[in-house]
């Protein structure tokens, strides 16, 4: 974990405690963690929207600039942090924890799909699930698998269908990412029909 990640976690210590529940093998505890995280983000997002409606100072709308370059201050820091932390968690080698993080991410993205862009999610994915030659083969595999789970959460959340103009750009990045992902996981292909709807094809490797 980088120094930047450690520093970010410290700033969100109260939220980070809830993520420990997601790491639990106890399903009821994990579900409780998801519920508490969603509740906390909902509260902070309502406060953020209230601030924006009150026409607050422009500087306050530039929070978390590094992670939210394309979101123009539409959502609160807590929402940014939870998206970042959930995507990072998709790279864990623990299968049960991966599933919990994937479900939580999908629910969170779906809940705020009107203000979260697919470009932002992909940006965070590339930052949090980096694949480098310094990683061991197993670690690279975990990162690739995490990226695939992130893409599936993005797809299931409905964000990709919010902005047809954005789809054309992001779908290129997604196809490139899928091409780079290990064929051991699965094969995906996307196309856009004449109405701009993305059709997903999924084929398990025989």
Automatic annotation (TrEMBL):
- Whether Nucleus counts among this entry's keywords is yes
Pfam families registered for this protein in UniProt: DNA_pol_phi
Name the principal localization, coarsely classed: nucleus
- InterPro entries per the record? DNA_pol_V/MYBBP1A (IPR007015)
Q: Which UniProt keywords apply?
A: Nucleus
The yes or no answer to whether the keyword Nucleus is present is yes
Where does this protein reside within or beyond the cell?
A: Nucleus
This entry carries the following GO cellular component terms, namely: nucleolus
Annotated GO biological processes are: regulation of DNA-templated transcription
GO molecular function terms attached to this record:
DNA binding
Q: Which PANTHER family match?
A: MYB-BINDING PROTEIN 1A (PTHR13213:SF2), MYB-BINDING PROTEIN 1A FAMILY MEMBER (PTHR13213)
> What protein does this entry describe?
Uncharacterized protein
Q: Which organism is it from?
A: Streblomastix strix
**Taxonomic lineage:** Eukaryota, Metamonada, Preaxostyla, Oxymonadida, Streblomastigidae
């Amino acid at each position: 974990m980088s120094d930047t990640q450690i520093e970010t976690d410290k700033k969100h210590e109260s939220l980070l405690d809830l993520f420990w529940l997601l790491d639990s093998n106890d399903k009821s505890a994990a579900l409780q963690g998801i519920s508490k995280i969603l509740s906390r983000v909902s509260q902070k997002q309502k406060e953020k929207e209230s601030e924006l409606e009150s026409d607050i100072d422009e500087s306050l709308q530039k929070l978390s600039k590094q992670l939210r370059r394309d979101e123009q201050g539409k959502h609160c820091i807590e929402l940014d942090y939870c998206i970042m932390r959930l995507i990072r968690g998709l790279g864990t080698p623990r299968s049960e924890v991966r599933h919990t993080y994937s479900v939580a991410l999908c629910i969170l993205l779906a809940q705020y799909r009107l203000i979260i862009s697919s470009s932002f999610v992909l940006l965070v994915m590339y930052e949090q699930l980096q694949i480098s030659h310094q990683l061991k083969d197993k670690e690279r595999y975990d990162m690739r698998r995490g990226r695939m789970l992130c893409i599936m959460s993005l797809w299931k959340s409905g964000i990709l269908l919010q902005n047809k103009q954005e789809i054309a750009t992001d779908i290129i990045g997604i196809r490139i990412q899928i091409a780079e992902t290990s064929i051991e996981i699965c094969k995906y292909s996307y196309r856009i029909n004449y109405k701009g709807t993305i059709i997903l094809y999924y084929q398990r490797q025989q």
